[in-house]
Design a protein that fits this description.
The protein is mainly α. Helices cover 70% and strands 0% of the residues. The protein folds into two domains: 50 residues, Homeodomain-like (Arc Repressor Mutant, subunit A, Orthogonal Bundle), CATH 1.10.10; 156 residues, Tetracycline Repressor, domain 2, CATH 1.10.357.10. The termini are far apart.
């Protein structure tokens, strides 16, 4: 058991080093030699854990997917956050196209969105589409108990919302101008209110709290 733990720790050490280097030098600008030097290991040790630099990136993407889903679950469980705000926070945490502002996350996203890496992109989408609706459905059920929502289909509503959000707002699948994107955001939230049987404007007002300006032009 001790050996297994050491192997896992070494694997994560390699991933951490690669993530930092990819963020600073880019995927193409980082060599396996750079990773070896940063971790201080022999080439054979690296290849024991990973077959190639691409294999390392795949592992980083898997870890990133798990992180996205974990963040969504953490937000969903935080009952100190009001139901409406919690739903929007979860959805915002799932925006894999924008990621966060760290160089490593941007590098991961750029790599995923290359045409030759379409399968990786699909894997992350599958994780989100299969893993997130149950998380959101629990929040919707809580909202139903509080009288905020009125729908007999909490899971199905969330499935539709997640699939739409991860398709239309994915820059690789649908190219939108900023004006068109904002129009879709407003329509998306307005229709989500109808799907969930929520008070008109309730989700829009919460969205404005995040400084998105999504309510602009909404009657």
């Amino acid at each position: 058991m001790r050996i297994v733990k050491e192997a896992e720790a070494r694997r994560n050490e390699i991933l951490d080093a690669a993530q930092e280097l990819f963020g600073r030098k880019g995927f193409d600008g980082t060599s396996t030699g750079d990773i070896l030097a940063k971790v201080g290991i022999a080439r054979g040790t690296l290849y024991y854990h990973f077959k190639s630099k691409e294999d390392i990136m795949n592992a980083l993407i898997e870890r990133y997917s798990a992180s996205i889903l974990g963040a969504a679950q953490d937000i969903a469980r935080d009952t100190s956050i009001p139901v409406l705000e919690r739903i929007l926070r979860v959805i915002m945490a799932l925006n894999i196209s924008s990621g966060d502002d760290s160089g490593s996350s941007k590098e991961i996203m750029e790599h995923i969105h290359k045409p030759q890496n379409a399968l990786m992109h699909q894997k992350i989408q599958k994780v989100i589409i299969s893993g997130v609706p149950p998380v959101l459905a629990d929040i919707i059920r809580e909202g139903i108990r509080q009288g905020i929502f009125n729908t007999p289909y909490p899971y199905e509503c969330m499935e539709m919302i997640v699939i739409y959000a991860n398709t239309i707002f994915d820059g690789d699948l649908v190219e939108l101008t900023e004006e068109a994107r904002m129009s879709r955001v407003i329509a998306f939230i307005s229709n989500a209110e109808r799907l969930l049987g929520a008070e008109q404007g309730s989700l829009i007002s919460v969205m404005q709290m995040f400084g998105s300006g999504a309510g602009a032009g909404h009657d």
